[in-house]
Structure to design on (982 residues):
């Protein structure tokens, strides 16, 4: 189909692909983007965009069991993982992922225009400086080939693009202070107001001393920076990230105008502020939450070609050489048909930006970039331990977005030598995650207790507003055996490989569950919260440590399958995110992260993508 | 936007003298006090369009009539912006907008405030008749039509008289008339979600830009279907009259569309059956006191009053109050739709009545 030779071919239209498309086209480069999902989702015309998004919403409202990918079309030709497929017993192959175990991998991502930013929550704390030196400081995992300071300017670009609402001064905790951001730095928008429920928690939690293995930690509760629209901060002065050919660098340019809030893709006046609809995951009805299509819309259309319904299947190498010669993709018409036509996309530079899972799959299927044998390895996620209970008073969950406050106290410390660090968001959605509340409360009351009418209403009114949840996102350490592989046995509708997963949680994380539960108990006690947490051996990802059982859940933070490193023998990409093996192949996305830290990874990954974009532009200009 | 203001400032300074002559010709706005009264009327006119637009909007069943829904919504949002812009102008010349008083609340069916009483505006469901009324409301002034401080034919002619008076009194008053407390001004940080950027008004050029914004969005530039949003760095958009005409004709305008010709672009689906069959001009007086519909309507009206109170406080020195108005606006919507789902009589439903209550 396309014989045109582009400057850059980008595979994937999620946040990494969208940032590349925007930055590279605005710098005058010709870009071709391949997207496996449906054309409608690309939604470049306002009316069609609106109708398509309404169809997402409709599907979300009409489906009984609402999971992260529920609103979005299921496509046999480019399947997405469904978290509803996850089963306690491995091995199984009933879903898109083949789960070899011993534990099932419990996270998903979305293959559709805009990628997983359509269903993400939007929490965007930065990583901590110490997160980049886990080997040196704590003898765990590996060090990054870059340090926090190297990434700082790119963090600012990412925060500008995502449009972060938050309060820099309140970002205080271990290894976390004003100095992480610089003296005058502010976020583009004021913080999203912390929810009523947060205020209830904060009363007895902020300043609370908890003890853990003989040490005392003082818990603090701070506001969560998020990619969600709020009031522009009058002191924020950055306009946009622009390529400067003279200095061969990307720079944030300043303006005397206030930050321009980016509303919905179909109507800039919709979603200019978060409306507290409380369905951020899986879908913000007004797009006050950032998604990658907002960035894609800012690309220079005249320099960008997008081909949808195009599933990248193979990276082709020059015969007898090491340069990438093209990307073979399968173009389908009917998303559920097995028919396709193969095409080759050609450019000077190629970038894979189609998620940690799909990037790894594609590299393995093509047998490229893998001289280190690290492709597909070190699969990581945040292992989420949930604890839930009833507040002594009504906290009124579901008022506002999923999380407006978090506890940073255990994000860093000497204990990381022994067990995993965690971040603790204070969730705002009651027991919806662990128990499918409030729907399950209705079912239980009606079916088990035969309640109806006034009794039912007063029962629900008494209980549901008191439901509360705390959550511990434990940092998974890299492990070579947690991996994605491919096998001739497992292919999808278009004869592309399905991901085959081997996965486990090591003692480093299991110890962390015990510690987290111990901390949770103390926080619950201080708040007079009646603990209703149950971990059942029949659940998926139930593990034991020290005679106790714990169930963890996936956070959707799929990281580490093609890590960045300082040597070709131990990593897939170098610090510029270029593959060691092929001078014109870059990888972007969470797969590059050598370790996970305790931050939701999207912000860091986006910052890294700006750095990659800069490297790509430099390389393109040096070749000219 | 500063560049535009500066550019217009230059042009307008030059035009001031001419404007002053124009003022004298149409001059029934006799004093600054009188000018403030007219600006209060302007706020009342902007507001009076909202209950009819919102009623038609909320009568559309969810998931249907996407184009019409978006169109009416965008117009309503812009009218809200205009209302607050008019408040900014009034505050700028030392006036005090009165939003929550009994006389502020229009009764439907009725005429728009201080108009020539040529057409009646009522509260009705989304229908061809409703769209015809909306076209009357947004009718563009003929080129060269005179400024009209009272008994106006079009809203444009009314604002033109205000513009002339602003120029005149700013010119003849020692120290100018823009002496209002700047902290009463609302800007983009206070207001969002509709029709463009709200900006502070503290001098004549800004007041004129504000009036131009109001007029161009409503009726279009004198000889074009497009509004001036492009100048405000926004996407190209067409003026209200022509937006409603697209619904009436069931077709979009193309980029070469002109006021003279009907739209000839792509077709849009308009389905007047996918609408709650609301009895026109609902009123609490139709229901026995204390009956469920009476109570439901009373609750709606109380929410509407709370919203007006909130806006009143916001434009009288307490801008933050506008944030607190946001949940009330959602409440208005939910309660209006609930009323339109409640059977009333003859196969028709109840509806929002937008009445004054204590």
């Amino acid at each position: 189909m396309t014989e045109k030779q582009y400057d850059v071919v980008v595979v994937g239209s999620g946040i990494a692909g969208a940032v590349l498309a925007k930055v590279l086209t605005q710098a005058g480069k010709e870009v071709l983007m391949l997207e496996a999902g449906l054309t409608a989702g690309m939604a470049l015309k306002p009316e069609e965009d609106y109708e398509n998004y309404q169809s997402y919403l409709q599907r979300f409202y009409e489906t009984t069991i609402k999971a992260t990918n529920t609103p979005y079309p299921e496509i046999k030709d480019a399947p997405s993982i469904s978290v509803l497929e996850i089963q306690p017993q491995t091995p199984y192959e009933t879903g898109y992922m083949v789960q070899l175990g011993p534990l099932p991998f419990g996270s998903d991502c979305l293959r559709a225009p805009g990628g997983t930013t359509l269903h993400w929550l939007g929490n965007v704390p930065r990583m901590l400086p110490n997160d980049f030196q886990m080997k040196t400081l704590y003898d765990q995992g590996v060090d990054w080939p870059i340090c926090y300071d190297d990434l700082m300017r790119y963090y600012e670009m990412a925060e500008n693009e995502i449009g972060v609402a938050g309060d820099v001064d309140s970002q205080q905790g271990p290894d976390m202070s004003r100095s992480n951001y610089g003296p005058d730095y502010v976020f583009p928008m004021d913080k999203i107001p912390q929810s009523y429920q947060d205020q209830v928690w904060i009363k007895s939690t902020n300043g609370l001393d908890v003890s853990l293995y003989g040490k005392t930690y003082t818990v603090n509760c701070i506001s969560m920076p998020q990619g969600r629209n709020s009031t522009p901060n009058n002191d924020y002065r950055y306009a946009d990230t622009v390529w400067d050919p003279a200095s061969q660098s990307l720079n944030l340019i300043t303006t005397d105008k206030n930050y321009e809030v980016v509303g919905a893709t179909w109507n800039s006046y919709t979603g200019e502020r978060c409306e507290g609809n409380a369905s951020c995951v899986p879908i913000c009805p007004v797009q006050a939450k950032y998604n990658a299509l907002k960035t894609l819309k800012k690309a220079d259309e005249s320099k960008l070609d997008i081909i949808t319904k195009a599933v990248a299947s193979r990276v082709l190498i020059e015969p007898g050489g090491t340069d990438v010669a093209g990307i073979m993709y399968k173009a389908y018409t009917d998303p559920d048909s097995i028919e396709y036509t193969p095409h080759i996309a050609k450019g000077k530079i190629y970038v894979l930006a189609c998620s940690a899972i799909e990037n790894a799959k594609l590299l393995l299927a093509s047998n490229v970039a893998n001289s280190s044998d690290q492709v597909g390895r070190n699969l990581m996620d945040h292992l989420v331990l949930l604890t839930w209970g009833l507040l002594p008073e009504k906290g009124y969950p579901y008022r506002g977005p999923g999380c407006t406050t978090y506890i940073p106290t255990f994000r860093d410390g000497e204990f990381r030598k022994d067990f995993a660090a965690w971040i603790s968001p204070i969730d705002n959605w009651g027991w919806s995650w662990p128990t499918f509340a409030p729907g399950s409360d209705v079912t239980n009351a009606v079916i088990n207790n035969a309640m109806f009418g006034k009794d039912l209403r007063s029962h629900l009114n008494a209980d549901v507003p008191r439901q509360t949840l705390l959550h511990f996102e434990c940092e998974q350490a890299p492990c070579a055996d947690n991996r994605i592989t491919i096998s001739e046995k497992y292919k999808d509708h278009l004869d592309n490989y399905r991901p085959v997963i081997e996965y486990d949680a090591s003692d480093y994380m299991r110890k962390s569950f015990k510690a987290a539960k111990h901390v949770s108990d103390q926080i619950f006690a201080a708040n007079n919260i009646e603990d209703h947490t149950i971990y059942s051996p029949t659940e998926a990802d139930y593990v034991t440590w020290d005679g106790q059982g714990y169930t963890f859940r996936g956070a959707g933070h799929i990281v580490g399958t093609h890590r960045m490193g300082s040597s070709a023998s131990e990593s897939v990409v170098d610090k510029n995110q270029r593959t060691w093996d092929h001078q014109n192949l870059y990888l972007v996305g969470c797969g590059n992260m050598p370790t996970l830290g305790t931050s939701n990874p999207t912000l860091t990954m986006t910052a890294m993508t700006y750095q990659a974009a800069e490297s790509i532009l430099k390389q393109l200009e040096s070749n000219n | 936007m500063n560049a535009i203001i500066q550019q217009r400032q230059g042009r307008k300074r030059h035009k001031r003298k001419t404007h002053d002559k124009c003022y004298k010709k149409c001059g029934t706005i006799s004093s600054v006090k009188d000018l403030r009264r007219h600006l209060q009327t302007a706020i009342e006119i902007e507001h009076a369009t909202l209950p009819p637009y919102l009623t038609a909007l909320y009568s559309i069943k969810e998931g249907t009539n996407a184009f019409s829904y978006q169109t009416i919504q965008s117009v309503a949002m812009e009218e809200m912006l205009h209302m607050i812009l008019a408040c900014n102008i009034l505050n700028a010349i030392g006036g005090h907008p009165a939003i929550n008083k009994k006389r502020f609340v229009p009764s439907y069916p009725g005429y728009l405030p201080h108009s020539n009483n040529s057409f009646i505006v009522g509260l009705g469901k989304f229908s061809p008749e409703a769209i015809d009324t909306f076209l009357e409301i947004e009718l563009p002034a003929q080129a060269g039509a005179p400024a009209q401080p009272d008994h106006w034919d079009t809203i444009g002619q009314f604002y033109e008289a205000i513009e002339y008076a602003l120029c005149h009194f700013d010119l003849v008053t020692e120290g100018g008339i823009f002496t209002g407390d700047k902290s009463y001004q609302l800007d983009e940080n206070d207001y969002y979600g509709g029709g463009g950027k709200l900006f502070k008004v503290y001098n004549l050029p800004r007041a004129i830009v504000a009036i131009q914004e109001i007029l161009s969005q409503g009726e279009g530039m004198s000889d074009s279907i497009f509004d001036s949003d492009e100048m405000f760095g926004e996407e190209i958009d067409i003026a209200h009259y022509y937006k409603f005409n697209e619904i009436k004709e069931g077709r979009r305008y193309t980029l070469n569309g002109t006021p003279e010709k009907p739209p000839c672009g792509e077709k849009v689906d308009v389905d007047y059956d996918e609408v709650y069959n609301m009895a026109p001009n609902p009123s609490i007086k139709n229901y026995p006191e204390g009956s469920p519909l009476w109570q439901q309507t009373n609750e709606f009206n109380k929410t509407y009053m709370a919203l007006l109170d909130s806006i009143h406080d916001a434009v009288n020195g307490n801008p933050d109050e506008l944030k607190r108005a946001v949940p009330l606006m959602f409440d208005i919507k939910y309660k209006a739709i609930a009323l339109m789902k409640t059977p009333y009589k003859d196969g028709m439903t109840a509806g929002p009545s937008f009445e004054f209550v204590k």
Notes: Chain A has one domain: 5-623.
